[in-house]
C-alpha cells in the first residue's frame, strides 16, 4: 500500500475470494452496505448502484458515533469482473471531484485488487489512504464470511 503521488493513492491487496465475489462486493448494494465506510463499527445505510458506463452510484453510511457520510459518482468504465472506474464526490464537499479505478485479476482461488484513487488533492478533509485501508479490512471480513 502506498501513495503514488501527492494526490493519488494506490493500494494493492490480495483478497481471499474468487473474482466473482469481489465484483459483487463492488456492484451489489446489499453487499456494499456490509463493508463500505472506514469506521470498523460503522454501518451502511443506503446504496444505489447502476454499474454501467454513465450509470450513477450513491452510498450513505454512518460511523459508530452516528455521523453520516454520502459519496456519489458516475461510472466511466465497467468491464465485468475486471475493471471499474468512476468519479468520486462527497455530499458535504460539493465540487471536490476525484477519480477511482478498481482493477481485479484472478489469482488461483483469490483476487488481486489494484485500487487507485486519483486527484484527491488537498481540498478534501478526508484522509483517503487511512480510510481506504480501514475500509478494505472490512471488505476482507465480508468476503471471508461469504465462503
Describe this entry's structure for a reader.
- This protein has 147 residues and is of the alpha+beta class.
- The protein has a single domain (2-140), classed as Alpha-D-Glucose-1,6-Bisphosphate, Chain A, domain 4 (2-Layer Sandwich), CATH 3.30.530.20.
- The protein has three helices and eight strands; from the N terminus they run ββααββββββα.
- The chain has helices at 19-27, 29-35, 128-145; strands at 2-5, 8-15, 43-49, 56-62, 68-79, 83-90, 98-107, 110-118.
- The chain has an eight-stranded antiparallel sheet with strand order 1-2-8-7-6-5-4-3.
- The two termini are 25 Å apart.
- The model has no long low-confidence stretch (mean pLDDT 90).
Summarize the entry for a quick read.
The chain is built from 3 helices and 8 strands, in the order ββααββββββα.
SSE map:
Layout: E1 2-5, E2 8-15, H1 19-27, H2 29-35, E3 43-49, E4 56-62, E5 68-79, E6 83-90, E7 98-107, E8 110-118, H3 128-145
Antiparallel strand pairs: 1-2, 2-8, 3-4, 4-5, 5-6, 6-7, 7-8
Amino acid at each position: 500500500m502506498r501513495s503514488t503521488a501527492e494526490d493519488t493513492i494506490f493500494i494493492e491487496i490480495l483478497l481471499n475470494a474468487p473474482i466473482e465475489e469481489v465484483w459483487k462486493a463492488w456492484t451489489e448494494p446489499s453487499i456494499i452496505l456490509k463493508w463500505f465506510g472506514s469506521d470498523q463499527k460503522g454501518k451502511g445505510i443506503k446504496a444505489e448502484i447502476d454499474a454501467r458506463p454513465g450509470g450513477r452510484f450513491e452510498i450513505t453510511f454512518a460511523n459508530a458515533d452516528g455521523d453520516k457520510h454520502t459519496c456519489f459518482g458516475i461510472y466511466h468504465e465497467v468491464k465485468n469482473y475486471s475493471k471499474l472506474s468512476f468519479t468520486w464526490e462527497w455530499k458535504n464537499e460539493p465540487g471536490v471531484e476525484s477519480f477511482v479505478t478498481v482493477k481485479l485479476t484472478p489469482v488461483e482461488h483469490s483476487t488481486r485488487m489494484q485500487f487507485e484513487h486519483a486527484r484527491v488533492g488537498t481540498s478534501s478533509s478526508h484522509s483517503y489512504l487511512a480510510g481506504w485501508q480501514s475500509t478494505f479490512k472490512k471488505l476482507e471480513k465480508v468476503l471471508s464470511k461469504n465462503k
